[in-house]
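Section 3.1: Structural characterization of target chains.
Under the original work plan, the team committed to producing a structural model for every single-chain target entering the pipeline before any wet-lab resources were allocated. The record below documents one such target. The sequence was received from the expression subgroup and is listed exactly as submitted; it comprises 220 residues.
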Amino acid sequence: MTVVLQLPLPLPLLSLLLLSRAQGDPGASLNGHPGDRVNLSCIGVSQPTRWVWAPRFPACKGLSKGRRPILWASPSGTPTVSPAQPFAGRINALDLGIRRLELLLSAGDSGTFICKGRQEEESRTELHVLGDRAYCKALGSSYSHILIPLLGAGLALGLGVLGWACWRRSSTRESRAPEARRGGRAQDARGPGSGAEPALRRPGSYGPQKVQPTVPSGPC
């Protein structure tokens, strides 16, 4: 019979394991206000290669749904930050291995920050910027109040331009029609044009004369 003994773990080791488990939990989260600085940690990933962000309110930043890269590890040792992403100038790597990042919070930053490794490992941190839901909802309603009148004005302008073009075309056709009728009457008054053959006349006679047929000479 095999006897299994369960020995209690030392308190420092137990605390370390619990802390590691909490930081590496995909459900771990951070809360903060706009203007706060928070640290994002990459736990359980052997060789971090990049960080990506999945926004919770993408429309608040004028973005579409989905993940987007925000920072890469570089062979030179200096992490690369995309200048086109919304965290440009607000995010810094605290070490060359991009295991820890510092982010200056702004409204609309809520979402999932994912640290990815070479072996498809991931470490996730949920960030909640307090007040984002109300802020983004109000921002979306203000956008709709602006966009709807702009769309209506654009539609009215397009219909006006189309109507003016149709009126212009019809008026041009009407102005050309009398000229065409006058040109036809003048042609009828002048008679046949220069292309018609004149009738053959002999001196001292009136009216067209018949041309006598030519009799060929020589042997048949």
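Confidence is low (pLDDT under 50) at residues 1-7, 11-25, 142-148.
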